[in-house]
UniProtKB/TrEMBL annotation:
PANTHER family: ALCOHOL DEHYDROGENASE 1-RELATED (PTHR42940), VACUOLAR PROTEIN SORTING-ASSOCIATED PROTEIN 11 (PTHR42940:SF8). Keywords: Metal-binding, Oxidoreductase, Zinc. It holds the Pfam family ADH_N. It comes from the Bacteria. This is alcohol dehydrogenase. Its EC number is 1.1.1.1. Gene3D superfamilies: Medium-chain alcohol dehydrogenases, catalytic domain (3.90.180.10), NAD(P)-binding Rossmann-like Domain (3.40.50.720). InterPro entries: ADH-like_N, ADH_Zn_typ-2, GroES-like_sf, NAD(P)-bd_dom_sf. It is an enzyme of class 1 (oxidoreductase). SUPFAM superfamilies: GroES-like, NAD(P)-binding Rossmann-fold domains. Residues 124-145 are annotated as: Disordered.
Amino acid sequence: MGSDTPSLMRAWAATAPRPGMVLTERPVPVPGPGEVLVEVEACGVCRTDLHLTQGDLPPHRPLTTPGHQVVGRVVALGPDGEAATTRTATADHTTGANPATATTHTIAAGHATTTTHTGVADHAGGGPAADPTDHEATAGHTAGGPVAVGERVGVAWLRSTCGRCRYCLRGDENLCPASAYTGWDADGGYAPYVTAPAGYVYRLDDDAPAERLAPLLCAGIIGYRALLRAELPPRGRLGLYGFGASAHLTAQAALAQGHTVHVVTRSAAARELALGLGAASASGDAPPEPLDAAILFAPAGELVPRALEALDRGGTLAVAGIHLSEIPALDYDRHLFEERTLRSVTANTRADGRAYLRLSAEHPPDVRAVPYAFEDAARALDDLAKDQVSGAAVVMIG
Ligand SMILES: [Zn+2]
Ligand SMILES: [Zn+2]
């Protein structure tokens, strides 16, 4: 490690299964083979951090540091001294394709091609993988390569996958049963330093403010995957239920692709934000027209029947959350007949992450970051729990 790196640091730790989070002192982590050590500038606050600190999601290890939207700089490499990063945002946005086209390609490629890629290459440090879902990114394929000390990177939710199972081999690494997650299976970014497998970090723009980049790494990427899963037709009518960090970025991605966005949320401040960002409507109860697709961001299962009922024939409802309260009984005629589809969204692939970061580089979203000091990370989670954050909370660290 660099001579400037201290040996001890203060880090937040989830006390789950007891709800809460405490500030601890612990050794600065040492990167293992194929890993990088990242000095953290900022870490976005995600509702999943809340579920992990409140015990809605079972802890995978004791006193884990939450946080999986980490912006920082590589300050050391693991003992093998070389590591590949996933391709990134800015380095490979070489095409001038409009984002609607890019999305269509991504969807089509994901369904139509047979993969020749194996994720094993990522683990071997052999360079970025050619994911079958990443058709459009091929032009930037050589932009990956080894990640070096000093580079600015993002550490996101998906920490690692096996690279060998049927899901990994067919390009659905988000479904890998052996996948591991930052801030759940390993310590995350509510700390000055974090380690991560080099093949799973994203190169980030050197100049953008950290608080504007951090929310892209989960709120943005997961929302983008939900948008793909919603399978909107061109110039479609999209409903967003709940309007927090992820929805405010997803709305902008959808608007950039030419869709119409309707927002349904209880929060008056969020409705105002939605309209300010270009939503066609924002209400507390129901969208004003039938929808081609909708994304449920609120972790409220009782909204599922309502959201299905608001879909037009053939419409799709994608549930974006990792945690959802109980879904009431569905009525086949009212909620599902006429080929309405209900589907979940499970994490994301690195291809999703690269595609979203590329879109964000081409159409920079208006990120409504709400910064908190490192010492106030627990308060940031409290505010999120009380729905008092309008935009995306970010813990500022470095
Ligand atoms: Zn796998
Ligand atoms: Zn998240």
